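User: Please predict structures.

Assistant: First:
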Amino acid sequence: MTEIWELYKQGQWEVPFLTFSIYLFIAASLILYLVIVASRNGKIKRERLSKEYSTIIDKIMSAVIFEDVPFAEVKKDKNFLVLFDTSFFREVLTESLINLHKNYEGVYAQKLEHFYKDSGLIKDSFKKLKSLKWEVKCKGITELAEFNINEAFDQIIVYSKARKKTLKIVALNAAIKLEGTESIKYLVEHSDPIDDWMQLNIIGAFKKHDIGDREGIEHLLESQNTTVIALGLKLIKELKLTQKLPYVVHLADNTSNTIIKYKAQSLLQTLTP
């Protein structure tokens, strides 16, 4: 430090400073290059492993679906157990199960659900709900909802009030898929604003999962949250729930909110013959 101070007083500090800066820049660039190369190599390796695993998984799933081979039989293969002990293989396996489950119905879908539970992959999904990363939580919620794990509802609905909008939407969509209008009571009590994008996703979830029992949707009109009321009106309109019109009439006659009153009256004009 003394030598540097002396150079500074003598006005000879520019050259050492510039030399140090150049060396620092070169070192930082080299470190950044090594990080990029390592990241790229890791990605290439994962892609290669994913293809290899997918080939193995396809054979296993074919046996499970079409030959009625249970997980208890699959795990007798020592090579499979070695692979199954790695988190990345289980991740690829879960993704494969989800893709298959989306394309199969009835008995075949049930076989995939049994495999998901019997293999313990369901435990991985529940662990994801406790992750500190919102995107990992979303993944766990999506997996549990896809395989119709109704007992996960109470843990999933908690995230309908998360700060992260994407996590909110994923949680609400999953809750609607699992319990249908049972999720309505949580929306009624929702204190945060539900913006147009979230409302669109919720309506889409009701349409997608073709929920037969619409009982309870009218309770959205009783919420203290005007955005929840607006959502209720949109659901009644989009799902053409004419049996809910008496509740809309009551809302239009009693609300003091002019915007809500206008929306209710417009809905009555649209759905009334």
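Second:
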Amino acid sequence: MKILISTDMEGISGVVDWTHVDSTHAEYNRFRRLMTADVSAAVRGAIKGGADQVVVTDAHGSKTNILIEELEAPARLNSGKSGPMGMVQGIDDHVDAAFFVGYHARNGTLNGILSHTISGKAIANIWVNDLLVGEFGINALVAGAYDVPVLLVTSDQAGEAEAKDLVPDITTVVTKVSTSRYSADCLPPKRVHQMIEAAAEAAVKAFASGKAPAVLKTVEPVVVKIEFMHSAMADSASLLPNARRLEGRMIELKADTMPEAYRNIRAAVKMAA
């Protein structure tokens, strides 16, 4: 059984501030270790649950955050920002199931720690076939295009609620209870690691016994609408050959498949940012 673990940083143990997740700040090195420890707990749980292959994808920012020398064996690491599938690099027909570790709520969510959607500077909202989605929803839909269920998400309580709204039977671990965008009641990391390991083991065992959460899918072809923070960003993104301008800050992109739609989203964000 092969598990793909997509790992973001804002939902990791103890993270409450942009300085914790920005490599230009002194605090970052503490939290990249906590990120590595959170995902290592998920690896241990997956192996205990019966997985024989685990691939970790570093999905935050430059995608060079996880310390490979401290990552739990036998996991392999997808690292580097230019992978064609971005936050779900490594997804394909050979993956059986996915975990999303350290995720956060979409932009504008009440009491969602460091909430944003892909780019906090560029993106206000994204809709996939009229479904308002954040990073969890987008990435789960990409996984769904390969019939891969997301078994586990770790996040704050806002990210948990967003995930359960889309995948009601998903296993969750709440790493902290956010009280604003920049404050939270944080559990001790050692306790979080115990919770993640246990939840990952249980989720994989349930999957192996035929009790998986539903695969999140959308109809194809796919229509994506992106609302940017400013009209100049939509000006730039509307230069994409398949873009249609809807209004001042919004464009529409059409794609034959969800993976293609995901690449379109990434291209539009790059152009806007």
